[in-house]
Structure formats: structure tokens, C-alpha cells
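Researcher: Here's the sequence for the chain we discussed earlier.
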Amino acid sequence: MPDKLDAIAAAAVDQARQAAMEEAGTDQVGDHLGVIVEAERVVTHIFACLHPGYHGWHWAVTVARAPRARTVTVDDVVLLPGKDALLAPSWVPWSERIAPGDVGPGMLMATPAEDPRLQPGYTAGSDPKTPEEAIEIRSVVRELGLGRTRVLSKEGRDAACERWSQAHGADTPQARQAPAPCSSCGYFIRLRGELGAAFGVCANAYSSSDASVVSIDHGCGAHSDVVEERRGVELPPLLWDDAIDADGSGSVFD
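Model: Thanks. This is the structure I predict for it:
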């Protein structure tokens, strides 16, 4: 059963307003918007907030009355957001805010120890079980020159392929209007390894994809097989040659 509204606590509007003005300032507390029953003989008075930077917020002043007491005491004064309040966006960790292409000149981005995009490059047949073991393996790799300590994992390759396909794949507007795919273009340099089955690099300086990884089914209007239908302009017949005279012996100006 819900608690009943305490008449004495509910009537203490002026006392609650005074407490709010002491906290916020006399010009920051607006109209009394209502009262909320919190518990037996405990209520919260709601006042409009007049601060322009807190649109939709309100002052909440909680007052309580002791048993058989004829006066109330102020328990708490807080500024709370309403359903239409202007709020700051939810905090997002830096590791989730960073986006592709954000690392610029002079910036350093540490690679997480457990980055799922990477896997150990040389681990003597097994993955390290502890951070200490991973550090030891990396030191041995560096000392012996056995190769990279970490390489792309399957998850890392799949993520890269998805990004590349979205940026320079078959579904881009440019590729849909291309005369032929990149796989048949002379400017296409295929990647090595597994990724070479589907991707390469564009080496055409006049293409918008130049120096970018492109899929074999990408394409653009600068394909190497595109040739002009007319390679030159045919000149009209010569009407008069002022370099020779009528009998062809020399210039008319000699």
C-alpha cells in the first residue's frame, strides 16, 4: 500500500523553496511544479529550474517530518533532469571513440596486448599462456630475428577485407559504371598471399583509387583498356599554300 501524503510536509512549499534558492540563487528557482511522496512523512517538492543551460531540469527538495512533530526539516536539495532535459552524451572510452584514419603525423597509438586482430607470429608451436611468457617469446624473436612477433589474425584479415570492399569494391557507384574490373587493368598490382586472391593496389595516377587497396571486381573509368575512338583530329583540305608559287617553284614572297 502506498504511503499517504503528509499534509504538513506537503504544505512546506515556502521552506523548500527557500532551501532551493540558498543552493541555486534567488533568480534560478521557478514555479512549484508538484510534490512527490517518498515515504511516510517524507515528500519531495519540485521547482522549475530557470538556468538557461539546464533546460528541462528541475530542483528537487526533499523534506521530512518526525513523528508527532509540527515542523519539517530539509533533507536534500538536488538538481535533476526531466524527460526533456538537455543531457551530455554518454561517455565512451577512448578505445571505442578512435576511428579508422584518426592517427595522424606525430601521434602514437598503443596496440592492446589482447588485440583480436593480431596473433603471435612465432610462438614455437603454441600460444603464450601468460603475459610473462609472451614477453619472453618476443624478446627471443627479436634476438634471433625469426620474424614479426605478431601477425594478422583471421579476424584482422576479415575486418580489413570488409573495409576495403566497402571503400573500393564492386558495389561502389564508380565500380558499377566502370567499363571493366580492376583484375583486367594494367595498372592493377595484385597483393601477395591469401589477400591477393581478392585484392590489389591501384597504380594509375589519374584514378581516384590510386595508391589504394582495391578489390579485383572494383573498377573505374581510367581502366587501361579504355582507348579513344578517334586518336587525332582530321584536318580539312588545304585551300592555299603560301609557301610556294603557282608553278611550284618557290614561295610567292621571294
